[in-house]
Amino acid sequence: MAYTAQDLINDMLDDLGVIFAGDIPNGTESNACLRRLNDLQFSLDIQRLNINNFLQTSISAVAAMTFG
After folding, report:
1. Over the Cα atoms of the chain, what is R_g?
2. pLDDT confidence band for 49 (50 / 70 / 90)
């Protein structure tokens, strides 16, 4: 299941204590939050901080242990 903008809005409003867990904002609140999210994304794109492109990479970890 995809994580949508509405999911992000709901999670952030819950984190901020604006809504309770499991609640959803009404249409007016959701629209206002979506406009703010779009404004944030647009401002980051203008600054060339594109948040839409993710690269999948592999990171290998090596642990070194010394016993003395």
Report:
1. 19
2. low
Mean pLDDT, rounded, for 9-18:
87
Angstrom distance (rounded) from CA 1 to CA 41: 22
CA 14 remoteness from chain centre: 13
Q: Among 35, 14, 38, which Cα is nearest to 24's?
A: 14
Query: Could you tell me which residues come within 8 angstroms of residue 23 by beta carbon, excluding any fewer than 6 positions away?
Result: 14
Contact 37, 8 (CB under 8 A): yes
Burial bucket for residue 10 (CB in 10 Å: 0-12, 13-18, 19+): buried
Q: Taking the model in full, what pTM does it have?
A: 0.55
The rounded Cα 34 to chain-centroid distance in angstroms is 12
